[in-house]
């Protein structure tokens, strides 16, 4: 990559970074009301990076109040769409101008590789914000099929004050997936970043004010799930929550909503994503490259990671040989080294969760060993269909392999999961590919590739992987919009009134 720096240069940038550590509410940084802090740790070294404001219910209440004030006086919600567009495009440009520092900050907090931060997370974050900004003034209201005696308009309105609860695996990109359409729609937001990765969201909120976003529209309240996430989920003046994270926590947000003001809830949750490789898959080396990328990219800390390989017995050995060859090329190491493909897992606690699965297979082909810190080598193992390793979301670089004799068996096995986020199928027969894609119960199915689609395609899950809406695409704007019907009677003043 020609634009990448050297390992030493990245380390030098890391040493010089100014770290944002307090909440960002109503346009300024401020400590938690209690004055409490918590440590944020660099998972690659175990060192404390910073002490972050440990906010609580009082801070959430304050931030929601400021967001409400901003929403009601219309300083953003009633601005003309082209004006909102200009501000968000300026924000995307400012992120671009600060991309290197943000990439290093993201890598330091999360253990993600600088290679991915520089070449995927930052470019995709910028692209996402621009895409939603550009969409703002191209989304039309509607008029229902007309009749002689009435006209009905269906107008979009911003949903109001929105809580955005984020995960740690793509801190910037998930922020962009949510603030892009939410701010485009005219909402005010209160962001709760994951406690492992608060700092990039804080910095982006500061850049947003520099871009011209009025104060109070974009607030970030760092802290733990129970201390910040729950009060946000239960707040009577929050109109909607959009959440990405585990299915277990997603369920809690449904309860919070039911117990409070029945706010709208959109949930993007876990996955145990199958990749079916049939005997007619074609070039197995190409297939192997996709499987390895799907399974080990971002250390497998990806809700749509390929975590189950369901392979036809006739090609299993040949495919595995190629998968092992590709996986061995994924170097494990310091996330700030641009040659590293597999960085550190996000935390020691998460490392321990993933490591506990490493002996769960019936035969391990590669990996399994770990070395200090929070590193797990790409691991490929055969598993029994009903085993925990075959069913549970591991969220690490672990690929569980199962063998089948045909398409129907493969589909049945692929669908035998509580999740339904993503799936892929490899075959050179278009009919089998489409039959398979239709039968797989997942929000995104890729054929002869691994991927999540792009900003133009909706992203979300079936079954316990998703609820209430989709991220990405114009579909994401619907999450943050209310539809209002305005019905106008066209009858003459002296016509009989009909109900
Ligand atoms: N679908 C996805 O993209 C993701 C899936 N996961 C899955 O979840 C597992 C656990 O990871 P984890 O970080 O604990 O994921 P969580 O679902 O717990 O975290 C996601 C967000 O929800 C917050 N949260 C946690 N508990 C509560 C609560 N009781 N009330 C309100 N908000 C809460 C978290 O806060 P905080 O962490 O700051 O306390 C974080 O901001 C992973 O191993 C993986 O399997 C994890 C991340 C992303
Ligand atoms: C370049 C696209 C990356 C998409 C990652 C999607 C993951 C979402 C999640 O884990 O929640």
UniProtKB/TrEMBL annotation:
Active site: residue positions: 268
Protein name stated in the entry: Gamma-glutamyl-gamma-aminobutyraldehyde dehydrogenase
Glycosyltransferase in keyword set: no
One Pfam family it belongs to: Aldedh
Ranges of residues in domain Aldehyde dehydrogenase: 32-486
Lineage of origin: Bacteria, Pseudomonadati, Pseudomonadota, Alphaproteobacteria, Rhodobacterales
GO molecular function per UniProt: aldehyde dehydrogenase [NAD(P)+] activity
PROSITE patterns xref list: ALDEHYDE_DEHYDR_CYS, ALDEHYDE_DEHYDR_GLU
Alphabetic keyword roster: Oxidoreductase
